[in-house]
Structures are given as structure tokens and as C-alpha cells.
Amino acid sequence: MNPSFLKVKQYLLTLNYSIEYEHEREGIFLIHNESTGVNKMVLGCADPILIMEQFICEIKNESMEVYKLLLQKNRDIIHGAFVLDQTGKRVIFRDTLQLDTLDLNELEASFNSLGLLLSEFSEEIIKISRA
Q1: Which of 48, 80, 90, 97 could link 85 by a cystine bridge, Cβ 3.0 to 4.6 Å?
Q2: What is the reported pLDDT for 6?
Q3: Of all helices (H) and strands (E), which one includes residue 124?
């Protein structure tokens, strides 16, 4: 048993996240928690880090203003950041945490950061995905 994987799993269950899929050998979780806005978030235990990725939206209008807005919002995000996938069209919230020092409060803070981001920036996200 991978101790880091088990630690993350226990934290997820403690924080009331539903685990839709898990693969210990690959170190992957797919989770959700409707009350926090997490939906099909992928967590990857890739020692020495935990990678957290949540799809946010697809960019329809590839204008400089959209990219500028995302970069400016990154400044306000407490934990994690907006990133783009390799196509440059999918906006993802991504955070990385050290597995060897990971504790429950740190993981919860990352989830809270995403929840705050979604509540404060939801109108802009909708505009980006519809434009």
C-alpha cells in the first residue's frame, strides 16, 4: 500500500469528498463534492507532489482580453492557479502540494481556495465560456 495515496484518501473522506474513481497503482483519484463546487476533480499522487486539477471552462473567444483576465485573477487566488491545457482552450484550476508534509488543513485550504474562486469569479467564467 502506498502511504501517500492512503493519506490523501483518508483526508478526502474526512473532508466529505466522494471518490468516484481511484487507482492506487497510478495514484489517481476522481472526486466530487457538490457543496464546494468540485466536480470530477483529478488528484494525482506523483511522489513527491499531489497534483490537483479541476476543469473550469472552455474558452470560446480566444482574445487577449480573456487571457489577460485569467492572468489578473491568478493574482487573487490564494492557493493554486488558472492554467490552460495543451490546446490553450480549456481553463483548469491547478494546485500542487508536497505529499510528505501534507496535512488535512493544507488540503482543505486548496479546496476552499477553489470554492472561493468559483463563487467570486463565476460571472466572468460564464462569460468566458459563452463568448
Answers
A1: 90
A2: 97
A3: helix 104-130
Place of cell 478526502: 12
| CATH code assigned to 3-130 | 3.30.1460.10
CB 114 within 8 A of CB 54: yes
Q: What pLDDT, in 10s, does the model give residues 20-75?
A: 999 999 999 999 998 888 999 999 999 999 999 999 999 987 788 899 999 999 99
How far is residue 32 from each of residues 13, 15, 98, 127, measured CA to CA in Å? 11, 11, 21, 24
Distance CA(91)–CA(25), nearest Å, equals 28
Query: Which grid cell is 114?
Result: 477553489
Q: First-to-last CA distance in the chain? A: 47
- Describe the crossing of helices 104-130 and 3-14 by its angle, rounded to 10 degrees: 70
Q: Are 128 and 57 spatial neighbours (Cβ–Cβ below 8 Å)?
A: yes
Q: pTM to 2 decimals?
A: 0.92
